[in-house]
Amino acid sequence: MSKKKFEELDLMDNFLVLALASDLEGGPAYGRLLAEGLLHEKVAHVRVHAEKIIPGSDEIGRGIRMDVEMQSFSHKPEENELPDKVYDFEPHHKNADNLFKRSRFNQAKIDAQNLYSGERDFNKLPDLCVINILDYDPFGKGQTQYHFHNMCEEDTTIPYPDGLDFYYFITTAPDGEDSELDALLKYIANSREENATTDLTKQLHKYVTKVKTSPEERYRYMTWGEYIDFETMDAKAEARKEGHAEGKEQGLAEGRAEGRAEGRAEGRAEATLATRREDILDALNELGTVSDDIVEKINAVTDIDMLKSWFKIAIKADSIETFVSQAVS
Length: 329
What we know:
Blueprint: H1 14-22, H2 26-39, E1 45-54, E2 64-73, E3 85-92, H3 99-112, E4 127-134, E5 145-148, E6 164-170, H4 179-189, H5 199-212, H6 215-254, H7 256-285, H8 292-300, H9 304-316, H10 320-328
Parallel strand pairs: 3-4, 4-6
Antiparallel strand pairs: 1-2, 2-3, 5-6
Helix pairs in contact: 1-2, 2-5, 6-7, 7-9, 9-10
């Protein structure tokens, strides 16, 4: 968990991004400003979803969590109308994940939910732009941005209009040829007033300031931090207890040292999953009666990232119905 003070959060920090994207005014503005600043694209009508969950196809299949999804339309959309284009904004700090295959998997899940069952016209599939904002360069070429799309290797002049683009923007790269883009990336990495040096970043800073001066968001951040700290301590204690027992049993067959190590690992994982599920249910019980069906769905989840996302949705939800619509539906 980030140890930053609330007022020190940047647009690379998960909490600030989700709080901003969830704001009724700030969310659409955030999406529009990023599309304009990063891609030089102006969008008219948008829907913005913070921390959108796309569940797996079954209990075994893996789901995904989109940090910020923006759907764009050329006109005011109907309630269930599919968008013209989908933008997936994903800020990332350094991690050991396979970022490229992760992007590939996310793209497949996003596309799968954006075409109605039985539709035969694949031209109705919205264009998709996956935008990764990184504080490190996974390619090591020192560029500010990297743009990937499908093409023919034998003849790159042949168009391949599948509507799919992957972007990687690097906040730590040296200044590039686009000073407006450099200013935006600098502000994203260090979201302070002194770094709001262009019209676009000044507009963005207005909405960031709105979040940072909100007593409700400050309280949520404090609660979120306390939850992570207590959860970590509880998980460690439970993992030590279960890991010792499991490791002892495993050691009888495979050797005590190896068994204890494997047992602790399994114990930690199971303890963390159980704690996540319990905290989600505790938060939902504050909102009303939780049905057996919802309890069963929560207990069936074995993806720790999804449980983390569901907990954040649960503590922000104003009703169980809101939680269901944003998470388990």
